[in-house]
């Protein structure tokens, strides 16, 4: 089987065109979902169309699966697997080439402040837990005229309050390198300019540790098992409601830690700031299969043959449908090291885009890979 998803993350900010009206520009297509994961979904349809019209009788059934809840829980698979047996092997084109045989665990939770009654009136930022926010702002009781703009911060007056607005660089929670979290910029500005009360400052100091690193080291949860890349931790959404400031975190973790250890460390960290931490009801454990299996070798050999490269399978921090099947991997279609113009955005970011050339090349890879998988004994 091949499984993709048709749901997408919210559009977010910073688009230069309608995110839900696909654009073609200079050999690229732009729009929310063209890379994650509607573009790959279309490729699986074309692959099946090609195989059907070739007239060749396949030794196994090829099934295409499409989900609409991948970005927010993958609950659709619970229903599907209650009705159907797992395929003998499944790949999802919802990651990067060449072949990903392992995915980190996924953990999330919320830091909650005590009820605040100081200078902060509002604090807002982020669109989803698994998206690094590129916009955030706080409203604070202060004279905006006495505060200076910085490279990433703009201070304006709003209803007699100072509005501290930040512009960062967004991206996927699993790939924080090169991003700049806008919430962290606002937190730092508030603290550096002593704009908050003592109890607000105590909680914001906790948040400063959330944003001071993306490997969890400033929260005391860093981990690295030598199989996966090190743990990553980002803050996705902040909001203020009824005087309580909440900040969610999204963690991708390797095998040398687990949900219980993370909950204990983060709860202790929160308690030292007179705050509380609430883990999400469910965490996903790390997932991987043996990279020496024939199915993996078939996929990697096909990719290398088409591209002329000599790549090897890898593990990653993203989470895909693959982790929910007994035998599955993510297989493309992103090419992480392929250069793109500055105006082409990443998955989960503004102006999400993909090269048409990559789409056509990926289609060829998928058709050949399916035909070769069909020749393996299952």
Report on the structure:
With 378 residues, this protein is of the alpha+beta class. The protein has seven helices and 22 strands. The strands form eight sheets. Strands 15-16-8-17 form a four-stranded antiparallel sheet, with helices on one face. The mean pLDDT is 95.
Short structural summary:
By secondary structure, the protein is α+β, with helices and mostly antiparallel strands. The chain has helices spanning 38-53, 75-83, 182-192, 198-211, 259-271, 294-307, 356-373, and strands at residues 2-5, 23-25, 28-30, 64-67, 90-92, 95-96, 100-103, 105-112, 120-125, 131-132, 135-140, 153-158, 161-167, 171-172, 232-241, 244-253, 276-279, 287-288, 314-316, 328-330, 333-334, 353-355.
Instruction: Note poorly predicted spans.
Output: none
User: With helices defined by DSSP (H or I, 4 residues minimum), what is the helix count?
Assistant: 7
Q: Topology as H/E string? A: EEEHEHEEEEEEEEEEHHEEHEEHEEEEH
Helix content: 25-40%
Distance between the termini: 13 Å
Strand order of the largest sheet: 15-16-8-17
User: Approximately what portion of the residues adopt beta-strand conformation?
Assistant: 25-35%
On the 0 to 100 scale, the average pLDDT is: 95
Main sheet characteristics: 4 strands, antiparallel
Q: Keywords, please?
A:
378 residues; alpha+beta; four-stranded antiparallel β-sheet
């Amino acid at each position: 089987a091949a499984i993709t998803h048709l749901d997408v993350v919210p559009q977010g900010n910073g688009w230069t065109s309608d995110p839900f009206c696909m654009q073609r520009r200079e050999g690229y297509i732009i729009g929310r979902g063209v890379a994650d994961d509607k573009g790959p979904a279309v490729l699986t349809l074309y692959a099946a169309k090609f195989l059907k019209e070739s007239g060749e009788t396949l030794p196994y059934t090829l099934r295409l699966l499409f989900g609409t809840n991948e970005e927010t829980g993958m609950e659709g698979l619970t229903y599907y697997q209650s009705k159907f047996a797992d395929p003998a092997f499944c790949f999802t084109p919802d990651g990067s080439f060449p072949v990903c045989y392992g995915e980190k665990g996924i953990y999330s939770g919320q830091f909650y402040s005590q009820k605040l009654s100081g200078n902060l009136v509002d604090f807002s930022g982020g669109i989803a837990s698994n998206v690094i926010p590129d916009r955030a702002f706080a409203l604070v009781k202060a004279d905006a005229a006495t505060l200076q703009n910085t490279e990433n911060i703009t201070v304006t007056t709003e209803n007699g309050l100072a509005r501290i607005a930040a512009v960062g660089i967004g991206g996927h929670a699993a790939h924080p390198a090169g991003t700049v979290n806008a919430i962290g910029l606002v937190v730092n500005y508030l603290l550096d300019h002593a704009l908050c009360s003592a109890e607000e400052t105590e909680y914001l100091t906790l948040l400063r540790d959330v944003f001071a690193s993306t490997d969890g080291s400033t929260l005391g949860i860093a981990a690295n098992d030598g199989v996966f890349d090190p743990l990553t931790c980002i803050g996705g959404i902040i909001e203020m409601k009824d005087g309580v400031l909440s900040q969610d975190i999204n963690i991708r973790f390797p095998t040398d830690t687990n949900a219980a250890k993370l909950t204990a460390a983060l709860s202790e960290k929160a308690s030292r700031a007179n705050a509380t931490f609430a883990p999400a009801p469910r965490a996903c454990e790390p997932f991987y299969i043996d990279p020496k299996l024939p199915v993996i070798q078939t996929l990697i050999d096909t990719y290398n043959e088409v591209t002329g490269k000599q790549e090897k399978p890898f593990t990653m921090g993203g989470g895909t449908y693959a982790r929910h099947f007994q035998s599955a991997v993510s297989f493309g279609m992103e090419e992480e090291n392929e250069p793109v113009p500055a105006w082409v955005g990443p998955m989960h970011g503004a102006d999400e885009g993909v090269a048409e050339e990559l789409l056509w090349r990926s289609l060829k890879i998928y058709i050949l890979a399916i035909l070769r998988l069909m020749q393996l004994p299952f």
